[in-house]
Amino acid sequence: xxxxxxxxxxxxxxxxxxxxxxxxxxxxxxxxxxxxxxxxxxxxxxxxxxxxxxxxxxxxxxxxxxxxxxxxxxxxxxxxxxxxxxxxxxxxxxxxxxxxxxxxxxxxxxxxxxxxxxxxxxxxxxxxxxxxxxxxxxxxxxxxxxxxxxxxxxxxxxxxxxxxxxxxxxxxxxxxxxxxxxxxxxxxxxxxxxxxxxxxxxxxxxxxxxxxxxxxxxxxxxxxxxxxxxxxxxxxxxxxxxxxxxxxxxxxxxxxxxxxxxxxxxx
Length: 267
Known about the structure:
Elements: H1 17-20, E1 27-34, E2 48-55, E3 61-65, H2 66-72, H3 83-99, E4 105-108, H4 118-127, E5 140-142, H5 143-151, H6 160-167, H7 178-186, H8 190-213, H9 222-226, H10 230-239, H11 241-266
Parallel strand pairs: 1-4, 4-5
Antiparallel strand pairs: 1-2, 2-3
Helix pairs in contact: 2-3
């Protein structure tokens, strides 16, 4: 394990990560893009532009976006004029999907309040006249909170999602920063926003997969990953390549000893 980085094997941890990935066919990764909620003078809630939902087990992605709805309804040339209609139709499709997966788990990145999150999507749909379907909060896993529990708050520099992707060599093609997404919305670049949403869902999935496999690289200090207890020190030792080599040699020496004892008994 390199200095300044932490590695964690899900199977050895007593926290939620061990069971989180136990049923990948019922685990979804979700992310969405919306109008900027910083510096707003309009009292209405931020408009939603696209949502991506990715099944962890197969990687199949279901996406919802206003430009796809606009194309379906032959309204690509009038998106801005009919935004409410198109946004409501998109959210209707999304909540119909949610209604079919109420017993599944949802991994997300800070989607936890009415500013940005599941509640924000529900509020937005209700504001447009829809009736949202809500999955239980107990089935929602905020991945940054889980990473903080496992590695401490220093698991990656800010901005965490982008930096953690870089630490693990995860591709970020089409990945937009918050400021870039706000600019894309202002420029009515809906496809660009949608591509960023899809990419971020992929990044969150890749991070989750590495966490499951025990290969996630972080910038967490050694003590934040393993702690300073005797059990933590032992955990760090058993994670190291040197320990694995020594353990392997120990097995070889033990087997060789048994063989020599057997030969002596025969002679």
